Amino acid sequence: MLVVGKTEEDFMNEGIDKYISRLKHYISFEFITIPDVKGGSKLTTLKLKEEEGKLILAKVTAGDQLILLDEKGKDFSSREFSGFIQKKMNSGAQALIFVIGGAFGFSDEVYEKAKDQISLSKMTFSHQMVRLFFTEQLYRAFTILKGEKYHHD
């Protein structure tokens, strides 16, 4: 998973770390933080997205499948999301790279490179909170795939 900018709140970092440690029982998982663009507050929104996009795309290799967390993306139930994950793993992708961008979204180049866009909710959450929510949902997806008793329908 790639995220733009560090997670500020300790309680969120603790929650993210909790689910990352659980995820590692199922898959090889990395949580990579791309630093904020230097001088980003002085850039236009378009220029900031372009600079963040360059940093994101620098982390992607040829066999990777880029999946963006985007408010306009496809909505899933937790069970549907687990099926999505299973299909992606079966597709032969070298790696699935889920990306949580900066506050203004993604550059056109990142959208072009992405295989999919998914949404956590029609509601708006801070990018910091999305990190925790999505890490938990990844963990939940793997417990569903393994038939474990974490998820209840």
From TrEMBL:
Keywords: Cytoplasm, Methyltransferase, rRNA processing, S-adenosyl-L-methionine, Transferase. The gene is rlmH. Pfam families: SPOUT_MTase. It comes from the Bacteria. It is found in: Cytoplasm. S-adenosyl-L-methionine binds at L69, G101, L120, S121, K122, M123, T124, F125. SUPFAM superfamilies: alpha/beta knot. Its main location: cytoplasm. Its EC number is 2.1.1.177. This is Ribosomal RNA large subunit methyltransferase H. Homodimer. NCBIfam families: PRK00103.2-4. Specifically methylates the pseudouridine at position 1915 (m3Psi1915) in 23S rRNA. One of its GO terms (cellular component) is cytoplasm. It catalyses: pseudouridine(1915) in 23S rRNA + S-adenosyl-L-methionine = N(3)-methylpseudouridine(1915) in 23S rRNA + S-adenosyl-L-homocysteine + H(+). Belongs to the RNA methyltransferase RlmH family. InterPro entries: Alpha/beta_knot_MTases, RlmH-like, tRNA_m1G_MTases_N. The keyword Transferase applies. One of its GO terms (molecular function) is rRNA (pseudouridine-N3-)-methyltransferase activity.
